[in-house]
Amino acid sequence: MKRHLLSAGDLTRDDAELILSTAAELRDLADRPIKKLPALRGRTVVNLFFEDSTRTRISFEAAAKRLSADVINFAAKGSSVSKGESLKDTALTLEAMGADAVVVRHGASGAPHRLAHSGWVRSSVVNAGDGTHEHPTQALLDAFTMWRHLGQSRPGGLEGRRVAIVGDVLHSRVARSNALLLQTLGAEVTLVAPPTLLPVGVETWPVETSYDIDRVLPGVDAVMMLRVQRERMNGGFFPTPREYSRRYGLDARRMAALQDHTIVMHPGPMVRGMEITADVADSERSVIVEQVTNGVAVRMAVLYLLLGGNESGA
């Protein structure tokens, strides 16, 4: 692996499979009474979150603590950042604290790349979501969840598996990272969304696109529903929430059209009744809660490989 994890597109297939296999070993910790390893004792991990987050920040915090690292949580609200401090000055402060890894979530696309390549810090930088750009560890935990259900017992893992990602692709950093990583792992991805919620340039992504969810669903092995990010919208991207739900929501009728082995996923937070109904979210097909558990194992694997088990990385 490289020194930083900034984009799912930076991972080779060997890199991705190393993270997934390491996560599989660490996943067993979740079922033990004592969920701790001494692998990163003496290391310091800083969670630097310029955007609100609950699940991702807590997941990284749990991952670092289970590896015995020291954790510093830095939220922009109520900090010097809210008083006008720049990313550079914040980075220099973290460097002075001796951070070994900085986990960054930022509203501006490219901010983690800027931090990693600026020379301001010597620590490893992990992108925990930048604007509408990418969220590589979410893609890794999604791929790990798919692998556990669809690829663990077959040669080639996820090679040839078909995945539908449905909903607000335009504003989703999760969709972009998943498209890149799943293609690297050999899966076939179809993005399903209204034309207004597909990004400009999507034809250059390694995916197929469709406007018709009912045509796509019967042929997929996994379906991932995306939240409509209305907080990022300043125009009319669809007529009404009810119309969106009718055209692109996953309900019991559509779930019945899936193959018997097909799993239902969601990166969270869910808007029940909008992109997914409560009965589908809570069904036996749903692996949404498992994704959260797997997220801790995958982030443990990333931190371990960046800081402890990857001495040859460049």
Automatic annotation (TrEMBL):
Carbamoyl phosphate binds at R55, T56, R105, H135, Q138, G268, P269. It comes from the Bacteria. Pathway: Pyrimidine metabolism; UMP biosynthesis via de novo pathway; (S)-dihydroorotate from bicarbonate: step 2/3. One of its GO terms (biological process) is amino acid metabolic process. The keyword Transferase applies. One of its GO terms (molecular function) is amino acid binding. InterPro entries: Asp/Orn_carbamoyltranf_P-bd, Asp/Orn_carbamoylTrfase, Asp/Orn_carbamoylTrfase_sf, Asp_carbamoyltransf, Asp_carbamoyltransf_Asp/Orn-bd. It catalyses: carbamoyl phosphate + L-aspartate = N-carbamoyl-L-aspartate + phosphate + H(+). L-aspartate binds at K83, R173, R227. Its EC number is 2.1.3.2. Residues 160-306 form the Aspartate/ornithine carbamoyltransferase Asp/Orn-binding domain. Residues 3-147 form the Aspartate/ornithine carbamoyltransferase carbamoyl-P binding domain. GO terms for cellular component: cytosol. Keywords: Pyrimidine biosynthesis, Transferase. It holds the Pfam family OTCace_N. Belongs to the aspartate/ornithine carbamoyltransferase superfamily. ATCase family. Catalyzes the condensation of carbamoyl phosphate and aspartate to form carbamoyl aspartate and inorganic phosphate, the committed step in the de novo pyrimidine nucleotide biosynthesis pathway. HAMAP family: Asp_carb_tr. Heterododecamer (2C3:3R2) of six catalytic PyrB chains organized as two trimers (C3), and six regulatory PyrI chains organized as three dimers (R2). This is Aspartate carbamoyltransferase. It comes from Nocardioides flavescens. The lineage of its organism: Bacteria, Bacillati, Actinomycetota, Actinomycetes, Propionibacteriales.
